[in-house]
Amino acid sequence: MKVLVGVKRVVDYNVRVQVKPDGSGVATEGVKMSVNPFDEIAIEEALRMKSAGKADEVIAVSIGPQAAQEQLRTALAMGADRAILVETDQTLEPLTVARVFKALVDQEQPGLVILGKQAIDDDAGQTPQMLAALWDRPQATFASKVEIEGESAKVTREVDLGLETIEIDLPAVISADLRLNEPRYVKLPDIMKAKKKPIGTHTLEELGVEIAPALKPVKTEAPQARQGGHKVESVSELVAELKNKGLI
Ligand code: AMP
Description:
Layout: E1 2-6, E2 9-11, E3 33-35, H1 37-51, E4 57-64, H2 69-78, E5 82-87, H3 94-108, E6 112-116, H4 127-135, E7 139-149, E8 152-159, E9 162-169, E10 172-176, H5 188-194, E11 199-203, H6 235-244
Parallel strand pairs: 1-4, 1-6, 4-5, 5-11, 6-10, 7-10
Antiparallel strand pairs: 2-3, 7-8, 8-9
The protein binds adenosine monophosphate (AMP).
């Protein structure tokens, strides 16, 4: 079974993002970029499936600029067998990304596609669901445990009320939640070995995917700076202050 894994290049989660002065988006020049954290979890899960003999090949996929090769190299250093870069300098909406994955699914015929539950830059949380719909295959989102059993998978999902376990037929789409696993650290020898692993490239045109934006970003704003708090001496002072502010 082949497993396709999404690897999105995003601003590193430790970076304090800055909004561009014209409000047209977030500044990314000179900013540290990394693999989307939920995608690291997705890669780790696919690699564990391979070690357990449940998967034969792990293919990392990124859709983005040429520089996204860096994130694909990280996936290869973690242990992915090969990578595919679908090169574009445009910012794509989740529906377009899902269409790209669908085109790759048609080419590669994987038994499973594992994506992150959300990309930390757009926080859309839409691509896995849209891919499952386009592919007309089952989906198990927000997975915190996955067991492959022959032609199906038993997936424990994190839902509002606790945990839900479902069984889905393969091929299917799974989206990785935070508690699915703890991704491995990449070691230097693995980084060296990863340099020899292949990265195939495609364009959107080759895959027959058109960019047809359905959304128009209007404005990006930084959150309002929070005012500092202060300590009060007693409960009565606290109540008086809250009343003063009209909060109670
Ligand atoms: P989103 O729907 O944008 O929150 O993204 C959910 C997941 O879809 C991510 O965690 C990735 O696994 C995958 N994904 C989204 N955009 C890309 C991209 N440009 N390249 C590779 N994978 C992506």
